Amino acid sequence: MAKTIKKIGILTGGGDCPGLNAVIRAAVKSAILQHNWEVMGIEDGFEGLLMQGKVRPLLYDMVKDILDRGGTMLGSSNRANPFAYKFKIDGRIITEDRSAQLLENLNNYAIDALIIIGGDGTLSIAEKLHRMGIPVVGVPKTIDNDLAATDVTFGFDTAVNTATQAIDKIRTTGESHHRVMVVEVMGRYAGWIALQSGIASGADLILIPEIPFKLDTVYQVIRERASHGRRHSIIVVSEGAKPEGGEMVIKKIVEESHDAIRLGGIGKMLADKISDELGIESRETVLGHIQRGGSPSAFDRILSTRMGAGAVRVLAEGKFGSMVCLKTPTIASVPLEDAITHLKLVTPDLDSVRAAREIGVSFGD
Ligand code: F6P
């Protein structure tokens, strides 16, 4: 029989994204209105369950006015993995399993179940907590849209809109100066943001991790455009894109993080090579964290609201160890382990890739 729930905890882990507050708001309202549950807000991801003084009641009135706010009112962290907690002593990184401490703290707070909002790293931890017997439900978030088992993650639509608006602006200055403008977008190992914002902004080349590019093809596309009098070009490149036979460009290693690799730098590499090879002025713009900030789009506000309410529904039904997901047109749930076993990547035969190719967009292959 499912455990009777009286008090739940909510946390947001990993990189933030627009819509987190909207999920928190929906979960708090639904938990209180539908079940009269007490809700505790856990600060800074799993860090909040390992440190003192980071868990506080989330009352109904506390979540008003946050639907349209970016970020997360609870704070987030991608460094506090309770199963492999990393910290520095005398410059050395020590790793400890602190899951027993987390369990003890949960009992001390009398929290019966957790809603864990996060990407693949955070949800992998959620799955391990479930296997330890803690009732959890996951909510998939990430601007990267790379989580399997959901049609889309919230935050992605806003990131694509932000990137599209930025590329529109970059286009006009590129046109004025007859330059090749290279715009590097986020997405880690998945090309979703580059693909969608590239199509939406009318890019000439879209370079994504799933389709390795050839530099010669990139040069050829720009040359051909120039030969037709098109003196500027727009290249949207995903931070994880790589040349055929080459590697992704790593910006830095964050040792304390669940996923230590931070990508970045491919935009500059491309812009420099294009200038050198073609003698055409080229500039790179790295959109960076602007893609993670700002007010969520209407689509993301609605999806977040549906997922927050859905998470409470799934907890109430006793379907612990699952993740809510969008199976259009419904919010459903899947076992967490199905959601974390592989990333959802762009497939070269995807309809939008096909349509882009059909209208002359090059993927550099
Ligand atoms: O996963 C979301 C994301 O924004 C990726 O697109 C990006 O590679 C990474 O996080 C950046 O992480 P950080 O905020 O730690 O630099």
Overview of the structural elements:
This protein is an alpha/beta fold. 35% of the residues lie in helices and 20% in strands. The chain has helices at residues 20-35, 99-108, 120-131, 156-177, 192-200, 215-227, 266-278, 298-316, 336-340, 351-358, and strands at residues 7-12, 38-42, 55-57, 85-89, 92-96, 113-118, 136-140, 180-185, 205-207, 233-238, 250-253, 261-263, 282-286, 322-327, 330-335. The strands form four sheets. It has a seven-stranded mixed β-sheet with strand order 3-2-1-6-7-14-15, sandwiched between helices. β6 (113-118), α3 (120-131) and β7 (136-140) form a beta-alpha-beta unit. It is elongated, with a radius of gyration of 22 Å. The N and C termini lie far apart (55 Å). Residues 15, 119, 142-144, 186-188, 239, 262-263, 292 line the site of 6-O-phosphono-beta-D-fructofuranose (F6P).
Topology of helices and strands:
Layout: E1 7-12, H1 20-35, E2 38-42, E3 55-57, E4 85-89, E5 92-96, H2 99-108, E6 113-118, H3 120-131, E7 136-140, H4 156-177, E8 180-185, H5 192-200, E9 205-207, H6 215-227, E10 233-238, E11 250-253, E12 261-263, H7 266-278, E13 282-286, H8 298-316, E14 322-327, E15 330-335, H9 336-340, H10 351-358
Parallel strand pairs: 1-2, 1-6, 6-7, 7-14, 8-10, 8-13, 9-10
Antiparallel strand pairs: 2-3, 4-5, 11-12, 14-15
Helix pairs in contact: 1-8, 4-5, 6-7
The structure holds 6-O-phosphono-beta-D-fructofuranose (F6P).
